[in-house]
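Field log, afternoon session.

UNIT: design team B
ACTIVITY: writing a sequence onto a fixed backbone
BACKBONE:
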C-alpha cells in the first residue's frame, strides 16, 4: 500500500490527497490530524495548563461522495482545514447522532429539507417569557407551542459550528424509502470575502445510513486510539515542562470518554410527531397560526 499521500498522527494514517493504492474513494469519512504534542497550545495565563480537550488541538474535515467539506479557501497552510480542538467536533457529532439516526416520516421530508429562511413565521414569536401567564390560565409548565417544538426538532439535526467565524451550516437526517436507508447531508455556506470553503455554497448529498454510522464509529475509535497513545506518551514523559497537567485525571478522563459514544447510541429520541407536524405546517405556511395570546 502506497502511503506517500498521507500523514501519520500517532498510529493512525490519515489520507490527505488522492486514493490510497488498492482502495477506492470512501462514501463518507471524518478525517483529522492532531498537532504534534510539543506544538499543542497550553491554556491559562500565569500558569499554563492542559487537559484532555486541549490536547486534541488539530485539523479536521469531512469527505463524502467525492465532496471535501470544511476545506478552507485562501489558505497557504499545508492543512487548509478547520483548525480547532477535535474534541469539540467529536462531542457535537456523537451527541447529534441519535437524532440523525431517527427516521424522518415521509410527510415531514419537505420540512426537514427546508431552510429557516423559507419559513413564513418566526419561532421566537411563539416563545413566552418565563413569568408570562398562559392565555388559557394553564400551568407555566405546559408544553411549548408546536411551532417552537418543530423548530427545535429541526435545529437538532444541525451539526454545531458556532465556535467558528462565519460558520457553515451542516444538517443531517435519515430517510427510509423501500430498500433505501440513507442519511441526507445538507451543506450551506456563504463566503464573506474573508472566510470561505472550497465546497459549493449549497451541497446536498446522501450516503447509506450504515456508512454514516460506521464513519462515526471509525472517528471515535481513531480519536480514542490517538489520544490513548498521547496519554501514554505524557505518562512516560512525566508531563510537559512548565505545564500544569494532572496525569492521573487525564487517564481517568480518557477512559471515561472511551464510553461516550456507546452511551449516546443507547439513547432514543422521544419525538412527538403529531406536535412536530402541527408546527411544521405553520412554519411552512400550509395553515395560518392562531396568534391570540402570543406576544
Amino acid at each position: 500500500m502506497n502511503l506517500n499521500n498521507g500523514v501519520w498522527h500517532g498510529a493512525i494514517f490519515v489520507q490527505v490527497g488522492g486514493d490510497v493504492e488498492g482502495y477506492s474513494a470512501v462514501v463518507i469519512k471524518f478525517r483529522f490530524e492532531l498537532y504534534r504534542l510539543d506544538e499543542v497550545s497550553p491554556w491559562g495565563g500565569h500558569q499554563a495548563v492542559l487537559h484532555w480537550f486541549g490536547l486534541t488541538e488539530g485539523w479536521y474535515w469531512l469527505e463524502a461522495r467525492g465532496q471535501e467539506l470544511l476545506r478552507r479557501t485562501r489558505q497557504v497552510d499545508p492543512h487548509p482545514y478547520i483548525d480547532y480542538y477535535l474534541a469539540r467536533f467529536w462531542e457535537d457529532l456523537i451527541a447529534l447522532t441519535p437524532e440523525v439516526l431517527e427516521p424522518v416520516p415521509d410527510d415531514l421530508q419537505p420540512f426537514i429539507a427546508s431552510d429557516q429562511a423559507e419559513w413564513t413565521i418566526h419561532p421566537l414569536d411563539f416563545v413566552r417569557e418565563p413569568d408570562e401567564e398562559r392565555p388559557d390560565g394553564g400551568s407555566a409548565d405546559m408544553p411549548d407551542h408546536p411551532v417552537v417544538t418543530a423548530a427545535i426538532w429541526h435545529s437538532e439535526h444541525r451539526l454545531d459550528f458556532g465556535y467558528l467565524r462565519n460558520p457553515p451550516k451542516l444538517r443531517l437526517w435519515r430517510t427510509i424509502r423501500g430498500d433505501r436507508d440513507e442519511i441526507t447531508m445538507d451543506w450551506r455556506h456563504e463566503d464573506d470575502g474573508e472566510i470561505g470553503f472550497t465546497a459549493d455554497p449549497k451541497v446536498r448529498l446522501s450516503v447509506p445510513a450504515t456508512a454514516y454510522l460506521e464513519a462515526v464509529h471509525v472517528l471515535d475509535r481513531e480519536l480514542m486510539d490517538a489520544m490513548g497513545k498521547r496519554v501514554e506518551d505524557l505518562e512516560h514523559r512525566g508531563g510537559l515542562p512548565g505545564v500544569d497537567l494532572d496525569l492521573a485525571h487525564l487517564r481517568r478522563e480518557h477512559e471515561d470518554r472511551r464510553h461516550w459514544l456507546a452511551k449516546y447510541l443507547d439513547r432514543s429520541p422521544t419525538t412527538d410527531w403529531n406536535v412536530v407536524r402541527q408546527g411544521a405546517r405553520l412554519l411552512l405556511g400550509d395553515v395560518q397560526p392562531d396568534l391570540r395570546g402570543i406576544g
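LOG NOTE: Strands lie at 6-9, 12-15, 28-34, 57-64, 67-69, 82-85, 158-159, 169-177, 180-188, 202-208.
NEXT ACTIVITY: expression trials, pending approval
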